[in-house]
Each structure stands twice: as C-alpha cells, then as structure tokens.
Design goal:
about 35% helix; alpha/beta; about 25% strand; homodimer; 2,3-Dihydroxybiphenyl 1,2-Dioxygenase, domain 1
Chain lengths: ~625, ~625
C-alpha cells in the first residue's frame, strides 16, 4: 500500500518537509494548500522536486465550503475550483479533498449538495481529476461519514468518491462500521490518532492529533474497515499537532512511517485471526499488500541495566550499589566493565569501554546507556524493531564474547535483546569473570519493578509509539502531578504480563528538576530505577542501617494519610519512621521510597513493594518526593 | 480590603511562596493543603513564619466530598474534619473551605447536605472556627452558587457561610446577580479570570485560570456583587495555571497584586458612576475601603520610539531609516543621541547614553529600549502606573533638559509619558539641536500604526494585565497562525480611540524566529514597528526605488488571492508587483508589507494602510511573511 503524509504534519519550509518525507521513505504527500501558498516555489518546480525525491502529490487539500450553497456562492466556488484544478494539473495531482461545508450560508439539503458536487465532478472529469468528499467533524450539516457517503451516492459520478478520516469519525464517537461496504468509491483514507480530551472538536483537531499508536482512538478498527472495503492506498496521515510543528521534522517523519507500518501490521494480524467463515477478511488479505512485520516478542523482564561511567563514578556508584545491598559480581574479561547483582537484578558499570557508553558519558555524565531485555526470541525482537524503523546497533564484540542483537531506542539508549534461555546470569558467564554469590541476600531487593524515563515534550509521543509498536507495550492512563516548579505528566507502559514496565515522564515546565535532567540528557534519559522488595519496611531498615539516605518525607504527609485511607495507626507510624510512602487502589496497595539523587547526575533509585494487584506507580505521592527534593536543595 | 492569594497560585516550595507573597505586599494567604502536606515545616513553624512575614493564614482549603453523604461516609468525614480542625488551630487559621461534593456517593438531597453542614459548623464553633461552603463548577449535585447559598440558609448556623469564586460562576455562564443579597453570610471571595475555552470545566479550572484582567470573564461585575453584599475582605486569588506554576514566583506575585488593585479600582469606579438613587452603591462605597488609583490617562499616540545602539548601529540603522524616508532631524545637546523623523514619527537612536539604553544594548544588541506615549496628563499616568505596582524610572537628566515621568514596563523597556501639549516636536526642542524640516515628505509614512512585542510564554499574561491595568488598553481576540517552526499566538491591545496599538505575540514553539528573538531579549522585545501610509503602493514604490528590501511574497499567494476575495485583477497584479499583502474584514481592508530584518537583530518594520475601519493586524498573512523569512534564511 502506498504511504503518504500531509505536509501540515511536519515542521519547516515546504522544501524541508519534502526532503524529510522522502527520507522517511514515503511514497507520496497530501499537499496542504497553505504550505504551497506561502512557498516560493512554482507548481512546476514543486512537481519536479517531488519527482526528484520519488514522491507523488496524491492529494490537494482542503477545498472548503463548497457543497449545499445558494446559487451565487456556488458559482463563485466553481470558478474558484477551476483555479485550483489548474494548479493541480500543474502539480500532477489527481485528486482534491472537498471537506464538508462549515459556512453559515450552507443549506441543510443533501440533494442540493449532491447536485453541486456532481457538477464539480463533471468539471473535474474534463481534466481527468477526481473529487474526494469528506465529512468534517464540525461540518455545518454534514459531519458523519455516512452523511457524506449518502451525498456521494446521490451525486453518482465516477469522478466523485468518499474520503474518510479516523479523527473526524472517532472524535464524534461515531462508528467506522460500514465503511467496509463503501467499496471502490472509497477514494482516500486519512489516519490520525489523538488523546481523549474534553476539548471542543475544532481545537482538538487543529492542535492535538497524533500518529496512529500515539493516542487513544481505535485506529486499527477504523483502518480494518477501509481494508475490508478493498481500499488499496494511499494510506495517508493528516496530523495537526502543535508539538510536531515545533520539532525537527526528520524525527517526526520517522515516527510517522513507524505508525503506518505498525497500523498495517496490526490490521493484517486481525484479518489473519479472523474466523474461516469471514470470507471478506481473506479477500482483503489477498488483494492488499499490507506490511508484515515479525510479531511482538514476549519479554520476560529486564536482564540488565548498564551505566556509562568513568573511573571515579565506577568507584562511587559501585559504593552506592553496595550500600543498597548489591554485591560485586564480576569483571569483564577484556573491558573496563563491572557487574553488580542483587536478587534477580544485574547492574553493569561500563567505564566507556564501548562507543555507546563513551558517547553517552561524554554527553550526560554518569547515566544509563543501555538496557538488556530478556526474550525467548532475540532475533525476532531485533527483526521487528528494524522492520519498524529502529536503527540496529552493532556493538564491537571481542573474540568469543556474547553477541547480542541490539537496537538504538529514540534518543540514543541502546536496547539489547537477551536470550531468556541464558537465565539470570548465563549472559555474563561467557564475558565476565564472576565472583561467588554473596551469602547475605543484600537488602532484599529482588527484582526490577520499573524504569522511569524522563523525556522532553517533543519526545513523549515518539516514545509511546516506540514502546507500543516495537516493544508491544500498552499505555496506561496519563496522570498529571505537581512538582514545585511545574506539572509533570506521567504514562505507564507495560506488557500484558507486567514483566516489563516503563514509566514515561514529561515535564510541562522547563524549570522542574525532571525537565532539566531530560534536557541535559538530550531529551531522553533514565530518571530513576525502581527495585522491588517483598518486605519494603524490612529492606528500608537494612538500607538505612547501611547508611543509605532516603528522600525525607514531611511529617505532615503522615498526619494526613489516615484521613485518606483507613489504616492502622501503628502501621502509619511504621511508615513514618521508615519514611515510606503509601498508595492504595481498588486492586491493592503500594509502598515506596526514594533514594537521594546520585551525586553529579539526575538519577536516583526507588524501592517498591506491590501488594495485591496494584498496577500503578504511586503518582499521587510524587509531589511529596519532588517537594522534598526541592526543599533539600534549598538547605 | 485585605488581600490574599492561594499558595497554589505560585511556583516554588512553600517557603518560597510565602516570601514571594509577602514581598508583593499581600496581607494573607489561602493555604492549599497539598502545599502543606508536602512541606517539611510543622504547623507551628508555618504559623511563626507567616507571623514573621506579616501574613495571616486566612483560609485552609479544600475540604472535599463532605455534604450529602450516606451516614457511614459522613461519620468518617467528621473524624477527618477534626484532624483538619486541629491543624487549623495550630496554624491560627480561622476558616476552612468546603467545596461541593464530587463523589459518586453523594446524594441529591439539599436538606441532608444542610443538616450535615450544620453538624460540621457546630463542631467548628466549639473551636471558634468557621466553615465556608462553595459550589464547585463540577460538583455532583451542587455546582451553582445559588444552590450552595440555599443549603447554607437551610443549615442556618452562625459558623457556616457562603464562599463564592468567580471562576466557578463564570465558567458555567451563571450570573453573579444576587450575590449582593447574601450579605454578611458571604464569608470569603475568591477571584479568578480565564480565557474562554471550549475545554471541559475541570481541565479549564485546573490549568488555565489567570488573574483578574488577564482573561475574558466579567470579573468586575462579579466582584461588584460581592462589594454590594457588604463584603469587606479578604479579597483573594485562587489561580491554577500551568504557566504560573512554571514561572519564577516573584514576577507572578506582582501580577497577582496588580490584578487585585485594578479590580478594586474598577469596582470603585463603577460604584462611583452609579446613579444617585442607587443607595446600595453609595453604602458599599462608604463601608468598604476599595483601592483608589488615579484614572487611566487618555493617550494621543506614540511620541517616539528609542533604540539602544552603539556607534556602528547608529550609523547602519540611521542609514536604513534614511532609505525608509526618514530624515535626520537633530542631535541631543549633551548626549550621543540622534533623532530621525518622518510625518509624525519620531525615532531616537541612543548610543548607550543612558543607563537603560546601556543595559538594553548589552543584553540584546540593537533594540527598542524605550517608548514615549503622548498624554495630556503625564503625572497622572505615572501615578496610576506606580499605584498599580509599576516601577518608576528616573532617568538622569542634564541641567535644563526635559524631564519625563517614566516607568519600567515588565521585562525592562522604559515607558515615558510625554505631555501632549508639547505637540509632535516640542519635546525635542529643548534637548536637541534640530535640523530644518526635510522638504520631500520622505516615503509618505505618516504615523505609527502599531508596535509588535514578542514575548516568551511566561510573559504574555503579565503584559495583557499591564496593558489593561496600567495603560487602559482593551484586548482583542487572540488569533493563532503558523510559522514554519510552530504556532504563534497574537493578541492586539488598543485604547478605545485606537491611538495606541500594541500587538502581543507569543510563540508556542521554541524554534520559531519570534521565540528565539523573544528569548534573546530576556522575554520581552519589540519585534517590529508598523508605520502607516495613506497610499501604501506609492510608498512601497518609493521605498523600493530607494533600495529598501521587502520580504518577498510567493507568487502563489497572489494566484490564490482572487479565490479568497472579489478583487479587480489589475489590483491584484499591482499588489503582486509591489509584494504587498492584502486582508479584508467586514469593516475594511488592510494592505501591508514587511522590510527584511535589520542585520544583527530580530526586528524589522511593517508598512501598512488601513482602509475603512479595518481593526486588525493582517494576522492571516503572517504565515506568508514567516514562511518567506524562513526560506530566505535557507538560501
């Protein structure tokens, strides 16, 4: 299926946009008229440039306020259309999008609208152009796709067809069911996702759309209907997004392509899963060429986390890890890399022994530079990731050393896929000189609960899509909470089995500690790592005895706690004495505490215990932690 | 009237907030409970700190989900209240805000709500505390102030009264009419303004409130009702605003105080204007102490614009001004300051001969450092400005030189108030050695149309309020338009006579040229200056002949223009040949063009002609200009 994107979806001048679109390997574009009107480039130059870049101008858009007009206005619009048809011919563009009328002059008369569109199509036919009619969600009389389809059917002209856009349908909570029956009169498909918002639909549409897989609409169900209609392309994105408009366009264009590949893969998967008696699904699969990425691999958890350090930080961070109950577990056979372990957690300190660690350290100082994810199909994981436009990472590997399939996540962190068959330590047996297991069990930290990634605002949608498309994680609800210097927006992403949890945090202010850390890490950085204990109060007692400093929590928090939850007074006093935070959901409880920040870097550790099926991350307590950190800094 | 502000309105830790609030000369605070819960400061310390700063804790808030509950939940809430009463006693806080219940458990039973609030008031009375009941706009059964008032009346307890908040009333388009009759049961008044938005009321309330005078609500009408009720304070602000949370709190606290002073002044003015038979107005005026600032002065226009330059820029900018048709008109008697004139426009080039020019030049290079506004009451203008918390600016003045009453506008630009009696050049006769008037009439630029000020997002509301409160300007509708690298939001501010027009521009992206200029100028900088011509096409012809380079406009713009407006083809070709942009409103037409940016600085000039009563600024054409500027930079 040919893939296309509207020029309005990207930042930059029209020249820039075309280059970014071509570089992301799109086949064509929708030309958003204002991009052309303001460009100092003639139609002939534009056509030549697109030819040179291998792009086709698939659609010219939008042509507004046309159908259902009083006669005088209608005639003016026909004259206006001829001017645009001239332009389309010069551009080599075969189709124009007519969006439903928003003018107060528009008449509520479907038959009139059909007759006027018929006349327009007749004029288009003379030049062998085509008209696609689309219901805008805020059209005056036509705002559902079925209304537009009714008018297209009444008009009954071979050069007139229907355009559908997932945004306009989903934003009105309208169903796409039935688009499958439109058949060959489905002329063009525009896909957009969006977060659910209580915002009027025009503002929502003009500022907050995003790429399929970044929002909360059922874009897969929508596109499935189009495929079942026999629609064979272009598959196109029309995304009005304030952040995308303000972000370098090369990155956004990669997200755009990833979103379409993911969408095609998801719809293909659904059709393949359809019951045998669903002949339409089989037909659709046979007649269309939908992208076929390798399936999402199952992850068994995080195998290891690797920090980029220098000699001093290897010493200091190693010392901190020891106080946290980790043991020195081994040293790499050929590189300045050490391993610390506790329970099932492996932490690797890499003294810039690889290019990735070197680069990360030089940019950010001590920080997480890589993750290892355990999966039973590392090669499949790599293949899916690269199929979905992730860059492959080929680490230099010494003779006889373990070679891991690896990719670069958006923003530069390396993700290694580790064969689950190697078990918890098998990975390290080959490359490390391992020490004997420590006997004392450390501080009772048994596993990695989650990783919190701090992102600048222009990276959040990128990461949501990366996690969903490449890693197969689902997004929880976004929550907002207050840092003393601005709001933070947090979204948990996890696999269905809850073996892999990432929390994506974005600061809505530039002045929070989190924003400054994310900025300093080039837009993406691991902010904290949460370790799980089966008895957090006991673990905290041991850690405190070992000299670990936790972020102190206000006494006022504990005075307030019993007014929020029915808790045993003695238990509250134990929490207070330990400085442990508490949250409760209908599914279970969550106890957690934070270590103070590691000197010379933004990151810190969280210690957590989940009771029952608590599935969140204690966001309600984040303000207590952040306010406390801010107060520390003032002292 | 005592003035107060909720701690949630400002950024920072609680300690910071209290200091900023005291520095802005508030009398008290509303303590937003989460600010206390997360503070590492006991109630006793908090009380002491407030005492030291001269602040009273006027209100503890919010106490949620209380009234109209089933018995078990009600009893738990009473126990919860006792814990908060303990805290209020420790804080020395006399009143708690109970906001209407949002719980799904709440019963639609006003009598039950009244009985439960009566019991709460009874308990409060034992400690001599008071309960204020407020209708939240999203309360489950109670969301209008009249419903809350009905319940307060039914409960009939001396320790229970009504709290009103302009946001909750205006956001529901409810009328404040009748609050005047609440009388002494009006226990507390919270004021908030907001932009009109098609956003659900909770998100609107939690993220987009702003200070009175910064938004679009009728805050004056609302507060007038409270004053007529005999309410004598505190007058308090409760503002949830994402930008304020992320902005240094000292600046925001100054805006907060300015907004209250303005609000009191406006209400006083209304009451003073009330007809003689309105005895209530007279009573309210006598019984209350409302702030009484000097009236808004009338402005007759901009007397002069002053640039901070060095010797090189004095030369280069002077040369540019000459090509724009300005004549060298004189030299300051004692300072390195020159004057250029054309029509009624005076431009002053100040070679860092004053501290303000020196400071501005060192921070921003060549840029506008001062404005002179013509008014028939310069002293009154100064007194109003300082009464509304503007800093006075005392320029060093040589013997016998003209001394101008002056202030510092937010962000550092100096505004001088120039006596209109001096006429167009009288101001300069004393201080300058003037040249004879040039004979050729220049390029036909006759007056200053408007000044466009580029602002970082944290400065916009500050400037809207400054323009409204200090200068008496009204805000037009905000418009958004697209730069190639993000959206720009633009608000025109003008006096009723349209003699003084400022356009406040803010970039919603950090990557636009405008954002970068605003950032580089410390958050506030004049972006361009628009000169008016009575015959723009003739002026442009003369300017082009003189070698002035205008921002070139795409041919595509002119191809499109006749599809947008009914225009004579020959006229469109004249616009095209001149590179002049066109806009039309029902009131009239607007022709305009832009000069290329002055080298080494972000600013440029606009040349405009208003036909009929066109009242805008050609925002629809801004994308053509900005795209063209971006394309220039790429070449």
């Amino acid at each position: 299926m040919r893939r296309s994107i509207a020029t309005v979806s990207l930042s930059g001048t029209l020249r820039d946009k075309l280059q970014a679109i071509a570089a992301a390997r799109f086949d064509g574009i929708e030309l958003f008229e204002p991009d052309f009107t303001t460009a100092r480039m003639s139609a002939a130059e534009m056509r030549q440039r697109c030819d040179d870049l291998g792009l086709k101008v698939e659609l010219f858009q939008p042509f507004r306020d046309f159908e259902g007009m009083p006669q005088a206005a209608f005639e003016r619009s026909l004259a206006r259309a001829e001017v645009k048809f001239d332009l389309m011919e010069a551009l080599g563009c075969p189709m124009v999008l007519v969006c439903s009328n928003t003018s107060p002059l528009a008449l509520p008369d479907a038959q009139l609208a059909a007759e006027q569109l018929h006349q327009l199509a007749e004029r288009a036919a003379r030049r062998n152009l085509r008209i696609g009619f689309e219901a805008l969600a805020w059209g005056r009389h036509v705002n559902k796709w079925r209304q537009a389809w009714d008018i297209v059917q009444r008009a009954d002209h071979p050069h007139l067809g229907l355009i559908v856009d997932s945004f306009h349908t989903a934003s009105l909570k309208d169903s796409p069911q039935g688009i499958a029956d439109v058949g060959e009169k489905l002329f063009f498909v525009q896909m957009a996702d969006a977060p659910l918002m209580g915002l009027d639909v025009i503002d929502w549409a003009r500022h907050h759309r995003n790429f399929p897989g970044q929002g909360q609409f059922d874009v897969v169900g929508f596109f499935e209907q189009c495929v079942r209609a026999g629609y064979s392309g272009p598959l196109s994105l029309e995304i009005f997004n304030d952040v995308f408009r303000a972000t370098p366009n090369r990155r956004i264009a990669v997200d755009a392509m990833r979103s379409l590949l993911w969408l095609e893969g998801e719809v293909r998967h659904r059709l393949e899963q359809a019951p045998a008696e669903d002949a339409a699904a089989a037909r659709a699969l046979q007649s269309q060429v939908l992208f076929d990425p390798p399936p999402v691999p199952a992850f068994q958890g995080i195998s290891f986390i690797e920090f980029a350090v220098d000699g001093t930080h290897a010493e200091n961070l190693g010392q901190l890890l020891r106080t946290l109950g980790f043991s020195f577990a081994g040293r790499h056979r050929s590189k300045a890399v050490t391993l610390f372990r506790q329970g099932g957690v492996n932490l690797v300190l890499n003294q810039q022994a690889t290019p990735a660690a070197r680069e990360r350290f030089s940019l950010q100082g001590p920080s997480v530079c890589a993750l290892g994810l355990r999966t039973d199909d590392p090669a499949g994981a790599l293949n899916r990731a690269t199929a979905l436009q992730s860059a492959r990472y080929d680490a230099p590997t010494g003779t006889g050393e373990q070679r891991l399939p690896s990719i670069v996540a958006p923003g530069g962190m390396v993700i290694h896929f580790v064969d689950d068959a190697l078990g918890e330590s098998g990975l390290f047996e080959k490359d490390f000189i391992l020490e004997a297991e420590a006997a004392d069990g450390g501080a009772g930290l048994q596993s990695l609960d989650h990783l919190a990634v701090g992102l600048t605002p222009d990276r959040l949608d990128t990461w949501v899509l990366f996690c969903r498309a490449v890693l197969g994680l689902d997004a929880g609800d976004a929550v907002k909470f207050a840092d003393p210097f601005g709001l933070i927006r947090s979204t948990g992403m996890a696999d269905a089995a809850r073996r892999l949890r990432l929390v994506l945090n974005m600061s809505m202010s530039e002045r929070t500690r989190m924003a400054q850390a994310a900025q300093a890490s080039g837009g993406v950085g691991v902010q904290h790592i949460a370790f799980a204990s089966a008895d957090l109060l006991a673990s905290v007692a041991r850690l405190k005895a070992a000299g670990v400093r936790l972020v102190p929590i206000s006494d006022n928090y504990y005075d307030d706690l019993p007014t929020r939850f029915e808790l045993d007074a003695a238990f509250v006093e134990r929490l207070r004495a330990a400085g442990v935070l508490f949250d409760r959901s209908p599914q279970g409880d969550y106890l957690h505490a934070y270590t103070e920040g590691y000197a010379g870097s933004g990151f810190f550790f969280e210690l957590v215990q989940r009771l029952g099926a608590y599935d969140g991350y204690g966001a309600v307590n984040a303000p207590a932690r952040m306010a406390s950190q801010a107060q520390e800094e003032q002292q």
